[in-house]
Amino acid sequence: MIESKSYILNKLQEGASFIKFNSDGSRTEGFFYVSPKLHSLWYNTSKKRFQNSANEFPLKDCQVRSDLRSDTWLKLLQLGKVREQQSDLAFSILHSRGRKSLDLLASDTETRNIWVRGLEMLVQESIGKPYTKITNRWLEGLFNTADRDRNNLLCKAEVYRLLEQLNVRLTTDEFEQYLNQAGLNAAILRGQLRAQEFITFYQMLTYRPELMHIIHTYSESCDLCTCNGHPTIAMICSAVTPVMDSSFILMNAFGPRTTATSFSGIPPTARSNTCNYMTIEEVKEFLMNEQKQSLSSSEVADLIKKFDPSTEGKECIELGVDGLREMLLSDEYQLMNQEHCGTIYQDMTKPLTDYWINTSHNTYLSANQVVGDSSGESYVQVLQRGCRCVELDLHDGPDGHPVIRHGFTLVKDASLREILNQIKQFAFCASPYPLFLNLENHCSNKQQIIVARFLIDIFGSSIYTAEEANANTTWPSPEELKGRIILRGRVSPKNDLSVDYSNEDESFDPDISAVCIELASLVACQNTTFKGFKFSKYYKHYQSSSLAEKKALASVEHHALELIHYNQRLITRVYPSAYRQDSSNVEAVSLWNTGVQMVALNFQTDDISMSLNHGRFSDNKQCGYVLKPAILRDPNTTFSPNSCFSAYLLAQRRPLKLELCIISAQHLPKRNQRDTTPVSPSVKVKIFGVRCDHNEQKTVTVHNNGLNPIWNHLMQFSIVIPELCLLRFSVRDSDKNNTDLCQYSIPFLSMQPGYRHIRLLDHHNRPTTATLFVNVKVINMESTG
Q1: Does 120 share its domain with 144?
Q2: From the record, what ranges are coiled-coil (predicted)?
Q3: Residue 30 bridge partners (DSSP)
């Protein structure tokens, strides 16, 4: 029997009892249900819905995993607390960035399957909805949280508190004026707001005059905007905030298009001759001039019908401010080129050495380098984020079975076999291209044989063996190695006393004489001590060096060109200094600029390096392999990222001029939700790339407005080598020691020109409801090769 979607969702809202297992084997029975608005999962120890409802899990932050596949289930299987035969009753709901889980056992298979299917649908819907619908669901969720007595109404005091959470602070008079302007007469009489009334009220507060500015510009209302003697955006905004004149009219999406009924926040004298919509030809002109998009009239008509929410807009084929907002918030009009983030568009038939590879350091750690747990779930998380090289520190286990251990620390051990099984399940969930397992081998010969057996049992013929590597003279391409596992590690001890090993990672224990033949035969990428560039011509293509941060950065500074040529034939991995006990990260950009393929980062750390890594590998559908630009692959290159003179000579063209206007932001979060003071945001834009391209600029501060601050601030940058350039946007609270509220990084060549929204990320690189509205112009853009 195939249940309908409505049947499944009704079942989830009715709720069901499950046995919840903890990692120590203890268990409790709990009642689980999905909220009426389908936003959240609730968990009670009571079977009454709202009794003791202290555990809420927003579905947008959850993952659903069927069977016995979480960290907890694997531990319980090993302890004998559950049996494999119970797999069809089990599922897990992962939350807290995937590092915690609710591990549940159903009473029957049908119930388990309904819940897995239903939760997967809801999680997917929360991710895939248009941005404005996501915002409405977010507001409904906040409304429900603020509705403490569960009567689906908020009194004025509750609305005040909720608005403070949303960075809005109004006086009593301002509050009453906005209610009147919103036309919420029933709410005024009632003295309370329903959810939809609150959303209407909030949308009026967050009205977008900068979008109306675009419409007026292209609908020939030239008397409005930037002409001398007429209102500018800044003047418009000063009229909009904090309170609009009571004579202004709230936009009615269904009102007649022939009069200026749009709520524009513009003084009547300035809007007497303005138009509140664009025709097909005007939209066509806007797309051509600003967005650099050439569409036919029929294609523009289809676009208007798709995005304008009003009946009259669809019938008259006219784009109003709501339609323009919907269009500019859609995926295809984001700052990031949709081809770059949505498709694998690069040539994937080059040797592996021609790509930057998304690489993790000490993947098993979930915190710092000294304490905490080793977790298989950490591998799942990085693999789902497109990582293509994970690290395994192998040590002898006390029971004769090898373990993952962070030596000489308080970090708890993890079972190697469990972690390998989890890697197998998720190795190719986000990318079809080869996955490197970087082995730091500290095992005795006896337990190395067990390691080899585990690898063969779990990965089988998908392992790219040493024999296959020896049969080639260069690395195969990612396309040729799809679905393959590549082991990287030492196959011989560090026995050359003439070599300084102080800058090498401990990937092999010097007290062990050799790697057993069973394991060595599986290692296709041999970790080899770096003895200097003059010796590199003797290395086989499959030999690879690991460099400590200090040594690698010294090579970047003094031997950049040699390092670029070295990385054209051999794979290099750079890892953070041992002094980084807090799991902070190496500065990755200068290493990428010299062609280093693997810059190993601590994924659990939320710093600028991880933000830039997220930006770098958001390209090429986040598959974990990004083709290095031609200047790093050309065997005759003379390029040095440290020399402005070299960069200008190589470019053989005038530098690009980037004009970037930071217009406005919407729905900025607070770093601390307990703080009732509105944020005072400013925006910093920093250019990362070759030395002569480094630059940063920032806007002025807009005080006490995290709701809809407007800057209209123009920045100009000169870019010589755009192929290596990354931009990082950070929105900061100037009243809180410039604390980052949200951020976003993007490759220069992935930016789209024109008016664009940026969906800002939090410091964990997860999406927020905040957006930044910008205008991008690139002048003298030429082919970059």
Answers
A1: no
A2: none
A3: 18
Per-residue pLDDT tens digits for 239-256: 333 333 322 333 333 333
Q: Are 639 and 561 contacting, i.e. CB atoms less than 8 angstroms apart? A: yes
Q: Report, in angstroms and rounded to the nearest whole number, the Rg of the chain calculated over CA atoms.
A: 29
* Range list of β-strands (E), 446-515: 485-489
Domain residues for 470?
352-493+512-632
CATH number at residue 14: 2.30.29.30
Q: What is the pTM of this model?
A: 0.83
C-beta of residue 388 within 8 angstroms of C-beta of residue 431? yes
Tokens of 623: 């598959």
Residue 565 near residue 584, CB atoms below 8 Å: no
First CA to last CA across the chain, in angstroms? 56
Summarize pLDDT for 407-421 with one digit per residue, the tens.
656 678 889 999 999
Distance from chain centroid for Cα 720: 27
Report CA torsion sign: 513, 517, 519, 524: positive
Buried b / exposed e over 502-522, threshold 16 CB at 10 Å, is ebbbbbbbeebeebbebbbbb
Beta-bridge partner residues of 43: 32, 55
Tokens coding 748: 């220069």
Helix residue ranges, H only, 209-296: 209-218, 233-240, 280-289
Which structure tokens are listed for 725? Answer: 């350039």
Cα 59 from Cα 417, distance rounded (Å): 31
Cβ contacts of 558 within 8 Å, gap of 6 or more: none
Report residue 197 CA to chain centroid gap: 32
Within a domain: residue 712? yes
Residue 583 near residue 378, CB atoms below 8 Å: no
